[in-house]
Amino acid sequence: MDATVLRCADRLEAARDGDAAWSAAVEGLAALGVPWCHYAQVSLNTDLCARPPVLLRLTTLPQSWRDHHTAMGFWRADAAVRHCARSLAVLPTGLGFALAAGDAAWAGMCADAEAAGLGDGLAVPLRGLPGAAFGAFSLVTDVRGSGFAAWRAAHGRDAVLVAHLAAQRLMQLAEADAPPPPRLSPRERECLLWLAAGLRSDRIAERLGLSRATVDLHLSRARRRLGARTREQALAKALTLGLLVP
Fold this sequence. Notes:
Elements: H1 3-14, H2 18-31, E1 36-43, E2 54-59, H3 63-71, H4 79-86, E3 91-93, H5 95-101, H6 104-115, E4 121-127, E5 133-140, H7 145-177, H8 186-196, H9 201-208, H10 212-226, H11 231-240
Antiparallel strand pairs: 1-2, 1-5, 3-4, 4-5
Helix pairs in contact: 1-2, 1-7, 2-7, 5-6, 8-10, 8-11, 9-10, 10-11
């Protein structure tokens, strides 16, 4: 293991807030040849064709590129996002990889990234509780092709390790600062679980041996506890918070 990883791990452990942890991660990755990085945790309970709600985002990508990415709607074209939602394998990114995959939309995005001065990189999937959220740590170098292959052979594994260490520490610090999650009653939780299975109030009532009005009351209380406007939002929030995980 590279001494850079050990130094970065020590700094991450010593970090007492998110800013300090992010600074340690950025400096550690830069020492490994990663000049730009982007970290995000995203709600899984959403349509990936739309722009999902981001729970946490930290980045060193140039503002000009981020503005262009948003203006062009590249979220939908970014194969790395879809990959990180469905896989645990590290995905190499860049124009050459997009062309090899035959993904024209992704290739168009990567071509613009090259024009902005960004090189090839790695998309590192991050998964927490099943069904809760997914995330990614994008490691972007300033080299491409054979230069990127040489970098990956020399530093890729260490950079991925730093990404995982940083993500873990950042989530620990975020959870420590977050207010405690709302508590659902057993009946509210049961009703939400059946709602997640696709049942309507009348069918949930049959399953639980309750009246429909009582089921509606439990769902209404769950919605208020979770600060949601609709049942669907309440269900998404409960899943995101891990309140429905067995």
